[in-house]
Design goal:
Largest sheet: 8 strands, mixed
Shape: globular
Number of helices: 6
Radius of gyration: 25 Å
Distance between the termini: 86 Å
Strand content: 15-25%
Protein backbone atom coordinates (compact mmCIF):
# COMPACT_ATOMS: atom_id res chain seq x y z
CA UNK A 1 0.00 0.00 0.00
CA UNK A 2 1.40 3.40 -0.97
CA UNK A 3 0.12 5.10 2.20
CA UNK A 4 1.95 2.62 4.44
CA UNK A 5 5.14 2.92 2.40
CA UNK A 6 4.97 6.72 2.86
CA UNK A 7 5.01 6.32 6.63
CA UNK A 8 8.28 4.50 6.57
CA UNK A 9 9.45 2.19 9.29
CA UNK A 10 7.84 2.41 12.70
CA UNK A 11 10.50 2.47 15.41
CA UNK A 12 10.37 -0.09 18.18
CA UNK A 13 8.66 1.35 21.26
CA UNK A 14 9.33 0.12 24.77
CA UNK A 15 6.57 -2.11 26.11
CA UNK A 16 4.61 -0.62 29.03
CA UNK A 17 2.90 -3.36 31.03
CA UNK A 18 -0.42 -1.70 31.86
CA UNK A 19 -2.00 -4.78 33.42
CA UNK A 20 0.66 -5.07 36.12
CA UNK A 21 0.82 -1.38 36.99
CA UNK A 22 -1.66 -0.40 39.71
CA UNK A 23 -3.87 2.56 38.94
CA UNK A 24 -3.60 5.58 41.21
CA UNK A 25 -6.56 6.02 43.54
CA UNK A 26 -9.38 8.04 42.01
CA UNK A 27 -9.69 11.50 43.55
CA UNK A 28 -12.86 12.31 45.45
CA UNK A 29 -15.06 13.64 42.67
CA UNK A 30 -18.24 15.61 42.66
CA UNK A 31 -20.24 12.48 41.76
CA UNK A 32 -19.18 10.72 44.94
CA UNK A 33 -21.29 11.10 48.05
CA UNK A 34 -19.96 11.46 51.56
CA UNK A 35 -21.41 11.99 55.00
CA UNK A 36 -22.69 15.54 55.33
CA UNK A 37 -25.02 17.59 57.49
CA UNK A 38 -27.35 20.22 56.12
CA UNK A 39 -30.22 22.49 57.08
CA UNK A 40 -33.41 22.84 55.06
CA UNK A 41 -36.00 25.51 55.86
CA UNK A 42 -39.25 26.55 54.25
CA UNK A 43 -42.20 28.76 54.96
CA UNK A 44 -45.22 27.01 56.46
CA UNK A 45 -47.91 26.09 53.87
CA UNK A 46 -50.19 28.99 54.92
CA UNK A 47 -47.32 31.48 54.45
CA UNK A 48 -46.47 30.02 51.02
CA UNK A 49 -50.06 30.53 49.84
CA UNK A 50 -49.99 34.11 51.14
CA UNK A 51 -46.87 34.83 49.03
CA UNK A 52 -48.88 34.36 45.82
CA UNK A 53 -50.31 37.86 46.31
CA UNK A 54 -47.37 39.80 47.74
CA UNK A 55 -47.53 43.58 47.81
CA UNK A 56 -44.46 45.66 46.99
CA UNK A 57 -43.80 46.66 50.63
CA UNK A 58 -44.01 43.05 51.76
CA UNK A 59 -41.69 41.98 48.96
CA UNK A 60 -39.11 44.58 50.02
CA UNK A 61 -39.35 43.34 53.63
CA UNK A 62 -38.92 39.72 52.46
CA UNK A 63 -35.82 40.61 50.44
CA UNK A 64 -34.34 42.41 53.44
CA UNK A 65 -35.15 39.46 55.76
CA UNK A 66 -33.39 37.09 53.37
CA UNK A 67 -30.31 39.33 53.16
CA UNK A 68 -30.12 39.62 56.94
CA UNK A 69 -30.50 35.86 57.34
CA UNK A 70 -27.87 35.06 54.72
CA UNK A 71 -25.47 37.54 56.33
CA UNK A 72 -25.97 35.94 59.76
CA UNK A 73 -25.38 32.50 58.25
CA UNK A 74 -22.18 33.65 56.52
CA UNK A 75 -20.96 34.87 59.91
CA UNK A 76 -21.75 31.38 61.25
CA UNK A 77 -19.38 29.95 58.62
CA UNK A 78 -21.95 28.19 56.42
CA UNK A 79 -23.19 28.54 52.86
CA UNK A 80 -26.87 29.41 52.34
CA UNK A 81 -28.97 29.63 49.19
CA UNK A 82 -32.63 30.37 48.68
CA UNK A 83 -34.20 28.08 46.10
CA UNK A 84 -36.82 29.10 43.52
CA UNK A 85 -39.68 27.89 45.75
CA UNK A 86 -38.49 30.11 48.63
CA UNK A 87 -36.91 27.25 50.60
CA UNK A 88 -33.51 27.79 52.16
CA UNK A 89 -30.75 25.20 51.99
CA UNK A 90 -27.70 25.56 54.22
CA UNK A 91 -24.55 23.49 53.82
CA UNK A 92 -21.73 23.33 56.31
CA UNK A 93 -18.07 22.78 55.48
CA UNK A 94 -17.07 19.13 55.68
CA UNK A 95 -14.88 18.19 58.62
CA UNK A 96 -13.17 15.03 59.73
CA UNK A 97 -15.66 14.70 62.58
CA UNK A 98 -19.34 13.93 61.95
CA UNK A 99 -20.06 15.26 65.45
CA UNK A 100 -18.50 18.65 64.66
CA UNK A 101 -20.28 18.83 61.31
CA UNK A 102 -23.68 18.06 62.89
CA UNK A 103 -23.03 20.62 65.64
CA UNK A 104 -22.17 23.27 63.05
CA UNK A 105 -25.40 22.50 61.15
CA UNK A 106 -27.40 22.63 64.40
CA UNK A 107 -26.02 26.06 65.23
CA UNK A 108 -26.87 27.23 61.72
CA UNK A 109 -30.42 25.88 62.10
CA UNK A 110 -30.83 27.83 65.34
CA UNK A 111 -29.68 30.98 63.51
CA UNK A 112 -32.31 30.31 60.83
CA UNK A 113 -35.00 29.86 63.48
CA UNK A 114 -33.91 33.08 65.23
CA UNK A 115 -34.13 35.17 62.05
CA UNK A 116 -37.11 33.33 60.50
CA UNK A 117 -39.25 32.12 63.43
CA UNK A 118 -42.20 31.04 61.26
CA UNK A 119 -40.04 28.74 59.13
CA UNK A 120 -40.21 24.99 59.27
CA UNK A 121 -36.57 23.96 59.79
CA UNK A 122 -34.88 20.54 59.64
CA UNK A 123 -31.31 19.34 60.20
CA UNK A 124 -30.21 16.04 58.70
CA UNK A 125 -27.00 14.06 58.46
CA UNK A 126 -26.57 11.49 55.71
CA UNK A 127 -25.02 10.71 52.37
CA UNK A 128 -24.87 13.57 49.91
CA UNK A 129 -22.72 15.74 47.71
CA UNK A 130 -22.70 19.35 46.62
CA UNK A 131 -23.15 19.82 42.87
CA UNK A 132 -22.44 23.37 41.91
CA UNK A 133 -23.94 25.16 44.89
CA UNK A 134 -26.80 22.77 45.65
CA UNK A 135 -26.60 19.62 47.79
CA UNK A 136 -28.01 16.39 46.37
CA UNK A 137 -28.46 12.88 47.69
CA UNK A 138 -30.26 10.99 50.42
CA UNK A 139 -29.61 13.69 53.02
CA UNK A 140 -31.67 16.23 51.04
CA UNK A 141 -34.55 13.77 50.67
CA UNK A 142 -34.46 13.01 54.42
CA UNK A 143 -34.64 16.72 55.27
CA UNK A 144 -37.53 17.25 52.86
CA UNK A 145 -39.38 14.31 54.43
CA UNK A 146 -38.90 15.79 57.90
CA UNK A 147 -40.38 19.09 56.72
CA UNK A 148 -43.28 17.31 55.01
CA UNK A 149 -44.17 15.43 58.21
CA UNK A 150 -43.83 18.61 60.24
CA UNK A 151 -46.14 20.66 58.03
CA UNK A 152 -48.91 18.05 57.95
CA UNK A 153 -51.43 18.55 60.76
CA UNK A 154 -52.19 15.40 62.74
CA UNK A 155 -55.63 14.36 64.02
CA UNK A 156 -54.53 15.14 67.60
CA UNK A 157 -53.56 18.75 66.90
CA UNK A 158 -54.99 21.35 64.59
CA UNK A 159 -51.72 22.92 63.49
CA UNK A 160 -48.14 21.71 63.68
CA UNK A 161 -45.95 23.34 66.33
CA UNK A 162 -43.41 25.88 65.11
CA UNK A 163 -41.05 25.75 68.08
CA UNK A 164 -37.82 23.90 67.62
CA UNK A 165 -35.93 22.42 64.71
CA UNK A 166 -36.66 18.91 63.44
CA UNK A 167 -33.67 16.58 63.47
CA UNK A 168 -33.27 13.06 62.18
CA UNK A 169 -32.22 10.27 64.55
CA UNK A 170 -28.61 10.19 63.36
CA UNK A 171 -28.17 13.92 63.90
CA UNK A 172 -29.89 13.72 67.30
CA UNK A 173 -27.40 11.06 68.38
CA UNK A 174 -24.48 13.19 67.20
CA UNK A 175 -25.76 16.30 69.01
CA UNK A 176 -26.39 14.84 72.45
CA UNK A 177 -25.43 15.98 75.09
CA UNK A 178 -24.14 19.32 73.74
CA UNK A 179 -27.57 20.44 72.47
CA UNK A 180 -31.01 20.56 74.08
CA UNK A 181 -33.34 18.13 72.36
CA UNK A 182 -36.94 17.48 73.27
CA UNK A 183 -39.13 14.59 72.10
CA UNK A 184 -42.17 15.14 69.89
CA UNK A 185 -44.59 12.71 68.22
CA UNK A 186 -42.79 13.23 64.90
CA UNK A 187 -39.27 12.85 66.30
CA UNK A 188 -36.68 14.88 68.23
CA UNK A 189 -36.75 18.67 68.21
CA UNK A 190 -33.64 20.80 68.65
CA UNK A 191 -34.49 23.70 70.97
CA UNK A 192 -31.08 25.14 71.78
CA UNK A 193 -27.46 24.59 72.72
CA UNK A 194 -26.60 23.49 76.24
CA UNK A 195 -24.62 26.00 78.27
CA UNK A 196 -21.36 24.83 79.86
Amino acid sequence: CAALDALGEIPDLPFAPTMNTPLPPAPFGENEQALMSLVLASAPPADVAAHDTVEEGALTAEIERRRTLQSALRLAGVHADFLADGSLVVTVPSTASAIDQAAHAARAALVVKEHWPAAEVAVCTGRGAVRGRVPVGDVVEQAAQLLAVRSTPSPTRATPPRNGVRVDKLTAGLLEPRFALTPSPEGPLLVGEEKD
